Amino acid sequence: MSSEPLYQQLVNEWTTLIQTGTVRPGERLPSVRKACAMHKVSPSTILLTYRTLEDRGLIEARPQSGFYVKSAANLPLPRMRRQSAAHHTGGEVVDQIEAVMGAQNQADFIDLSLASPRGSDFYPTTRFKHIMGRLLRQHPELTTDYPFPPGSERLRRQIAQRAVSWGCVLAADDLVISNGCTEALQLALRATCKPGDTVGVESPTYFALLPMLKDLGLSVIEIPTHPTSGLALDALELLLSEKRLNAIVAMPTVHNPLGSTMPPEAKQRLAQLVCDYQVPLIEDVPHADLFYGATTPDAVKAYDRDGWVLLCASYSKTLAPGFRIGWIAPGRFLSAVRRLKFASSLGQPALLEETLAEYLESGGYDHHLRLIRRHFINQMEKLRGAVAQHFPTGTRATLPSGGCLLWVELPSHADTMQLFHAALAERITVVPGAMYSAKGRYRNCLRLSCCYPWNEAYQRALARVGELAGQLADKD
Amino acid sequence: MSSEPLYQQLVNEWTTLIQTGTVRPGERLPSVRKACAMHKVSPSTILLTYRTLEDRGLIEARPQSGFYVKSAANLPLPRMRRQSAAHHTGGEVVDQIEAVMGAQNQADFIDLSLASPRGSDFYPTTRFKHIMGRLLRQHPELTTDYPFPPGSERLRRQIAQRAVSWGCVLAADDLVISNGCTEALQLALRATCKPGDTVGVESPTYFALLPMLKDLGLSVIEIPTHPTSGLALDALELLLSEKRLNAIVAMPTVHNPLGSTMPPEAKQRLAQLVCDYQVPLIEDVPHADLFYGATTPDAVKAYDRDGWVLLCASYSKTLAPGFRIGWIAPGRFLSAVRRLKFASSLGQPALLEETLAEYLESGGYDHHLRLIRRHFINQMEKLRGAVAQHFPTGTRATLPSGGCLLWVELPSHADTMQLFHAALAERITVVPGAMYSAKGRYRNCLRLSCCYPWNEAYQRALARVGELAGQLADKD
């Protein structure tokens, strides 16, 4: 059997899937290995299929990440230049966060900054209401008994079962429930570092991490991070070999703000590095369940043989932002994290833990995830299209592998702090790039969200931010 | 009008009230000033009344605290000797807490250690169920919106309104909601101290405070504390004048474990001291609403003119242990606490905050408090009676001003760590006194709780612990 007709057949199949929107822009195609198994063909046939689809402009290869359905929007990837701002003061990040959060609480603002959608349409609130009603009737002690760490065993069992899809073999007893992923990070940092220590973080990184590190008396080294493949491991290894890091915080799956996911080989190497150098890695993956691909990528924790990885996540981005339920699998730091949780804030509300556990047991979560992933893939393509249309020439943007966040890079002289204030004056909230760096980097970047319903107000706000960005870019 | 017939009339009235159990053992009589206003008589008449009641063995004066209905149990106050254990290691408190907590989670244990009752009979769970059901129907966004500090404004308004009865004039914006009083304490310590600082605490103190201080890199100085009048202010002033303290943590109203409440003049002096020396006071009062008297005593915060007092409390001991809702009024440290709460764990679950706010608005809390205070007064008298009956000669115990905790001092050579293990072997949990000191003090003390329903199993367990204590005392 010749491979020519076969690959042609596959090209036709995939073309149909893409053109009918069954697989959408931004979605990742199966890896070559997986596609071989799926179609029972050789790697060369799959490569030929993918190259042909690429030539036809339907898909694109992303370095170290795989093949993706191509976005219609013509936006090159950000260059991620690392110059710091000349007038950086250091205290800015916290002030800036307060300004952005203050704006978020205004009901009549168009919010292009939120990292999770508002409103009950998006979440299984009706299910929660029914479960909670029954639990309150049958188990009133859920509101009256003191909850102690590590938290609901039933919920921890569910989390451990789900972690299998991230390649992790965990038991309920390996986990501690926390007040969202934020407290999980805080506990992880306190369990692994002492004041004066230095923590390596991605650049850019989750903005709320920076004040947390400062509050804990920890210094920061920002490590270059690629818009599709994530943390630069050569740079990390250099720092490790120089013994300059006491811990690392990274978001290897669906990075915030870049949307990047490290390829499996990179994750494996990262796990090996932290094991070799015996430096704890805090793997922060609250957005991982929003990965666009059909299968969930393995966590770095999946390759962790000696317990140096502390895996932190939550259900705040996918199910119940209002429950404040996060969790941590702290590896060799388990007993330290349990003690710290006990001494810092005791347990979490058992009623909410049990509600979530019952929802997860009932098996509706995977279906729910498919719906919201599809929704975000769709919204993200529209958002990228709007940026390509309305933002000034020279604008670049990420191609997120999941989630609802887009990182936009304006021409290098534009200042998004000015853009933030100009947009705020028109009741529109965006997040300025400088919030994602302790060194005042990314002054020409901003983070946009596609959480907002795709209505006229949102589109008008996006167009207006693009226009304001154009005015800033023209000022040069 | 001569005062003789009048005081005699008052003596008869009070005798009836006491003998019919309308006012019960452990309850505090109105202060002389209040009684004067109540009965429209002179102070000398009231003093004569109280002295006569005292002579008849119906009430007793407690130093610096007032007159109380006398307990039937003949138990002298603890002597509070401060010798440290010879073999103290320092790591014991945390290990001991884990052992006690581990035992508490065993369903078939008789638990004489809990600081709040279990079971839904004690709390307004039915009301919570109804409120929560309606909130979930009408406001599903309570589970889906991200909650940010400082927490529900509606709840903060209720807390501020209730703080008036503690003599505090607070606005909703002066408050931050926390994950129980435990997180409030943690945030207060982080806002006021840096690692390496020294914190003054009462001796004995709330046991979970000790690992918290250790985790935060803070040193401890234990300050003598009186079983009825609380923190020894002369000792505190000595330390303040020597500039040895960076902050103070104290429980001036219904101390845990002593049950002491500082008299108003002492609280006023304490407020003045921390203001004069500009040293923050973390006023930790989760048990204050369980004060036995008819009127709520003022907080130290009531006398705080310059914001040096950080008032921390919760609803975990009175309404909903499972909600994990605490709060802090951080005074001049407000913005630091807000930022720390944001960076440490974000907000608390809004559904639970709003449920509690609606319950408090509806006005049922005062009635509920009256019921549980009366319950504890009753139970405490029975507990003290059982200790007097079953524990060895030479046993001493506190006369709590509120709450459900009794501090028992055995003859000085008895070791309550041994008692803890001996009781545990018979499935009974008590808290050994050494847990309340970083220096291994109070090895001959233990804390008992009257939370448990007053049934045969509880009485048998108490008698058995007394018997075991007697065996230890005899070993000498």
Structure write-up:
The structure is a homodimer of 476-residue chains. With 476 residues, chain A is an alpha/beta fold. Chain A folds into 3 domains: 3-69, Winged helix-like DNA-binding domain superfamily/Winged helix DNA-binding domain (Arc Repressor Mutant, subunit A); 92-120 and 367-474, Alpha-Beta Complex (Aspartate Aminotransferase, domain 1); 125-363, Type I PLP-dependent aspartate aminotransferase-like (Major domain) (Aspartate Aminotransferase, domain 2). Helix content of chain A is 42%, strand content 14%. An 8-stranded mixed sheet of chain A has the order 4-11-10-9-8-5-6-7, with helices on both faces. The longest helix of chain A has 26 residues, at 365-390. At the A-B interface, helix 4, helix 5, helix 6, helix 8 and helix 9 of A face helix 4, helix 5, helix 6, helix 8 and helix 9 of B.
Summarize the structure.
Chain A is an alpha/beta fold and 476 residues long. Chain A folds into 3 domains: 3-69, Winged helix-like DNA-binding domain superfamily/Winged helix DNA-binding domain (Arc Repressor Mutant, subunit A, Orthogonal Bundle), CATH 1.10.10.10; 92-120 and 367-474, Aspartate Aminotransferase, domain 1; 125-363, 3-Layer(aba) Sandwich (Aspartate Aminotransferase, domain 2). The first copy, chain A, has 16 helices and 16 strands.
Which class do the helix and strand fractions of chain A yield? alpha/beta
CATH class label of the largest domain in chain A? Alpha Beta
Low-confidence stretches of chain A: none
Radius of gyration of chain A over alpha carbons? Answer: 22 Å
Overall 3D shape of chain A? globular
| Main sheet attributes: strand count, strand direction, barrel closure of chain A | 8 strands, mixed
In terms of quaternary structure, what is this? homodimer
Q: DSSP helix count of chain A?
A: 16
Helical fraction of chain A equals 40-55%
Mean pLDDT of chain A: 90
How far apart lie the N and C ends of chain A? 62 Å
Tell me the domain tally of chain A. 3
| CATH H-level homologous superfamily name of the largest domain in chain A | Type I PLP-dependent aspartate aminotransferase-like (Major domain)
Strand content of chain A: 5-15%
Biggest interface between protein chains, with counts per chain?
A-B, 63 and 62 residues
How many strands in all of chain A?
A: 16
Please list the strands of the largest sheet of chain A in the order they lie side by side: 4-11-10-9-8-5-6-7
What is the annotated CATH architecture of the largest domain in chain A? 3-Layer(aba) Sandwich
Assign the CATH topology of the largest domain in chain A: Aspartate Aminotransferase, domain 2
Protein name (chains A, B): Putative 8-amino-7-oxononanoate synthase
Family (chains A, B): In the C-terminal section; belongs to the class-I pyridoxal-phosphate-dependent aminotransferase family.
InterPro entries (chains A, B): Aminotransferase_I/II_large, HTH_trans_reg/aminotransferase, PyrdxlP-dep_Trfase, PyrdxlP-dep_Trfase_major, PyrdxlP-dep_Trfase_small, Tscrpt_reg_HTH_GntR, WH-like_DNA-bd_sf, WH_DNA-bd_sf
Keywords (chains A, B): DNA-binding, Pyridoxal phosphate, Transcription, Transcription regulation
